[in-house]
């Protein structure tokens, strides 16, 4: 997972530099602008520093800690120690995360989804959060249809949280070792070994393949 820093310029509208409280939630959003990049949207948040107004003449207050691009690159817009303007009353105790999407279904690309899961795992570990409870949607705070895909497909949102929970329980050393064996062409189903679903026949096959590989070195 690649993280690129594009910090917003301190200003009253998108980076007030208020100290955030104890982190209780991670709030998921969709960018609401299909086909745009994480960098585009980070620049939009930074552009609010001049004091832009909406159609009703009110100043726009908006930002997020992270934006995940369709290419899987994560843009960090604010330090996690600062408040972002993303979820109304939850701003003071939550990390805001925007997800880009290629079309108006709001469904993230495979690369964006992988980065989303990995970033959620990292944040939940850092703040000792239980993912099925702590990961919420903007919709859960204000009732706004955001993120659209995960509001309309509740099952997909549940699966996202369960996947994060599963990865949090993974053995990092084992995952690393399995990845090495996969890259060497020794195993083709890494999830079988990571999840511990292998059989005696799997072990026999692995031993034979490893022996053959070592013999060629």
UniProtKB/TrEMBL annotation:
Residues 9-155 form the N-acetylmuramoyl-L-alanine amidase domain. The keyword Membrane does not apply. One of its GO terms (molecular function) is N-acetylmuramoyl-L-alanine amidase activity. It catalyses: Hydrolyzes the link between N-acetylmuramoyl residues and L-amino acid residues in certain cell-wall glycopeptides. It is an enzyme of class 3 (hydrolase). It comes from the Bacteria. One of its GO terms (biological process) is peptidoglycan turnover. Coiled coil: none annotated. Keywords: Cell wall biogenesis/degradation, Hydrolase. Pfam families: Amidase_2 (PF01510). The keyword Calcium does not apply. Its EC number is 3.5.1.28. This is N-acetylmuramoyl-L-alanine amidase.
